[in-house]
């Protein structure tokens, strides 16, 4: 049986931040895989989630908490060539104007490709309304799609 990154990531659906001073230990394990500094689950953790899933599957990963760091991992593919189970989507995040994909240090978001329509892309990711779930984003926000395997 071959398990894709999407298959494994979907098993984490519903994992969410805890309110108050308590932190979700699963999210903390995502964050602490590559960085020592996160002290709580209130920091952006979308990249940590993708890194954790890729680490479990021995796939290439960014080893960074920066979402845009995923623009340097894998092979670029166009949105129309994206495949469920094999690709991550990197999105810009924050008020416009946002820099293009050449600026890794800017705000962003990353998750596993689920599908897309004429004006949106669906992504399974962490820290989407503080939980792991599928969310829709404007197709204009896509900075890149990367094939990991």
Instruction: Give the CATH class.
Output: Alpha Beta
**Residue share in helices?**
10-25%
Largest beta-sheet details: 6 strands, antiparallel
Number of E-state strands: 6
Which strand order does the major sheet show?
Answer: 1-6-2-3-4-5
The CA-CA distance between the termini, in Å, is: 16 Å
Radius of gyration (Å): 14 Å
Give the SSE order as H and E letters. HHHEEEEEE
Principal-axis shape: globular
User: Could you say which structural class the secondary elements and strand pairing correspond to?
Assistant: alpha+beta
Percent strand equals: 25-35%
Which second-level CATH architecture applies? Alpha-Beta Complex
Determine the number of helices (DSSP H or I, runs of at least 4 residues). Answer: 3
> In the CATH scheme, what's the topology name?
endopeptidase fold (from Nostoc punctiforme)
Low-confidence stretches: none
Compute the number of structural domains: 1
Question: On the 0-100 scale, what is the average pLDDT?
Answer: 95
Keyword list:
single chain, 149 residues, alpha+beta, endopeptidase fold (from Nostoc punctiforme), six-stranded antiparallel beta sheet, 3 helices, globular
Describe the structure.
The chain is α+β, with helices and mostly antiparallel strands and 149 residues long. It has helices at 5-10, 25-32, 46-57, and strands at residues 75-77, 87-92, 108-116, 120-128, 131-138, 142-147. It is built from 3 helices and 6 strands; from the N terminus they run αααββββββ. It has a 6-stranded antiparallel sheet. α2 (25-32) crosses α3 (46-57). The longest helix is centred in the middle third of the chain and has 12 residues, at 46-57. The radius of gyration is 14 Å and the shape is globular. It starts with a helix and ends with a strand. The model has no long low-confidence stretch (mean pLDDT 95).
């Amino acid at each position: 049986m071959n398990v894709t990154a999407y298959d494994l990531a979907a098993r984490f659906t519903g994992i969410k931040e805890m309110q108050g001073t308590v932190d979700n230990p699963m999210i903390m394990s995502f964050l602490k895989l590559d960085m020592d500094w996160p002290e709580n689950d209130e920091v952006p953790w979308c990249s940590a989630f993708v890194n954790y899933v890729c680490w479990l599957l021995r796939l290439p990963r960014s080893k960074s908490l920066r979402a845009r760091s995923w623009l340097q991992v894998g092979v670029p593919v166009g949105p129309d060539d994206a495949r469920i189970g094999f690709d991550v989507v990197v999105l810009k995040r924050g008020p416009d104007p946002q820099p293009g994909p050449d600026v890794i240090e800017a705000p962003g978001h990353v998750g596993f490709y689920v599908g897309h329509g004429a004006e949106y892309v669906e992504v399974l990711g962490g820290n989407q309304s503080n939980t792991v779930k599928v969310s829709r984003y404007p197709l204009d926000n896509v900075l890149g799609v990367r094939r990991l395997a």
